[in-house]
């Protein structure tokens, strides 16, 4: 086990810069998730930590060692790939023991460690099978087993769940988290799925266009997004953004919609500047005295109702936990929860 | 129902028309090899003779030192193929991984150059080194045929093996050589089989190189068959019998491995195939 330090790391392919300047400190035993939309450089960053891509600038340290010029095979890390990358010509047991065989470890010891890992992952009965004889979830487990057997300093996961169906994904999410709690190995996990990030991580690193947008615990990111990008990326359904400015102690949109200022925001803070008001759908309540609007879309899932409400030309997404007797086209009054509302600078995108 | 039957009959006839040149050619060869000389020249032609001339086959093995030539062919084709695999499989791997398409083209150009343009200089060269009486000149020059085939088949194969597998092996601690030997090579085994078969077929059937480079003792089978044509008048029966005997190993190999050959030639066309 080891800490990982990523210090002002850059990556360029020719003239194209994929990663501009990224610094992340990962403590020993931490579960860190790199999240961002496709093309943000998160997989490239992971591959740089793994040693599969060269580092154009900056420093990566694993434990005490600077690994910039260390080959992948000398870094003592294990990686789980998106498509599992199991060796098709080897049995499950051989797949899991491959790294130890390369190290010329004692075969009896290898067999013991493979059996041990198989026990943890429930693969005991599959050890003699070939990868093609396994289901997607089982392959995923074998790939994790291959990583466990090595007892590496760091686990790297590259979108490991994206090839599984939704139900299995939820199950494997729990298993990976449980595995981390059991082994306590430092883990770096890449995903584009913010729900995976929210549910599994100790710390989330939000990447966008090769830059770190925000680093923090999942709930911090949800409660206090540092900028518009994080605010829009974390949380599902996504946060409502309403452009406008502060006038006479309230927030007024271009279309004339009036919203109460977030708690703690002083009217003098940004009076007159172009602002964006952010409110999550789940932080909007239906009340008797809120702003009036028309329901334009209605989706009831049983546990909640998702609605889009047109208020003075602004389409606002709402998520109601209670069963409201709503109909499409009906009039409704809604009110944002001031404690959970956010204000951002429209120019810089930063949180006020 | 009836239209489906009609469809099938139509398909059958279309297939028959398409394959008939190849099939008739073989049938006629078999017929020739089993007829006496008198029947071979008969008009109207006779397909199935009244008496079979098995003696044609006996003659092939009795008169022409045929077993020596067979052994020569086995040695030349075998050595040229094994050498081609030793050179071509790692070469194909290197070209595929480093995306060195230009070197692949260079190899292809070597293959496309007409054999006669370099046969004479090479003949002089071999004479100068003093290996002309042996099989080595033929083995070496057959590499011009076998190496490009192996390289090109293997490039196609290695390009379809996913990069992640090798990256995983890398992370698991394998050196480049170990990655090749323990991961890339076993996965490419079907490709190696195809390369082997194609290389054997092309080398076995090669005629031009043997005609120029072989002496009486070092003839390969195609040259031996050709010589039957020129020495006696034209005895079609033994000639056809000899040709069939020469073709047989390749024919059997092709039929035996045709599924793999098709798979190997189309590798890369469909990902994950």
TrEMBL record, chain A:
Belongs to the ABC transporter superfamily. InterPro entries: AAA+_ATPase, ABC_transporter-like_ATP-bd, ABC_transporter-like_CS, ABC_transpr_MalK-like, ABC_transpr_MalK/UgpC-like, Mo/tungstate-bd_C_term_dom, NA-bd_OB-fold, OB_MalK-like. The lineage of its organism: Bacteria, Pseudomonadati, Pseudomonadota, Alphaproteobacteria, Hyphomicrobiales. This is Sn-glycerol 3-phosphate ABC transporter ATP binding subunit. It comes from Mesorhizobium escarrei. It holds the Pfam family OB_MalK. Keywords: ATP-binding, Nucleotide-binding, Transport. Signal peptide: none annotated. Residues 4-234 form the ABC transporter domain. SMART domains: AAA.
From TrEMBL, chain B:
CDD domains: TM_PBP2. Belongs to the binding-protein-dependent transport system permease family. Keywords: Cell membrane, Membrane, Transmembrane, Transmembrane helix, Transport. The keyword Cell membrane applies. The chain crosses the membrane at residues 9-30, 69-93, 105-129, 135-158, 191-214, 234-256. Residues 70-257 form the ABC transmembrane type-1 domain. It comes from the Bacteria. PROSITE patterns: ABC_TM1. PANTHER family: INNER MEMBRANE ABC TRANSPORTER PERMEASE PROTEIN YCJP, MALTOSE TRANSPORT SYSTEM PERMEASE-RELATED. It is a multi-pass membrane protein. It holds the Pfam family BPD_transp_1. It is found in: Cell membrane. This is Sugar ABC transporter permease. Gene3D superfamilies: MetI-like.
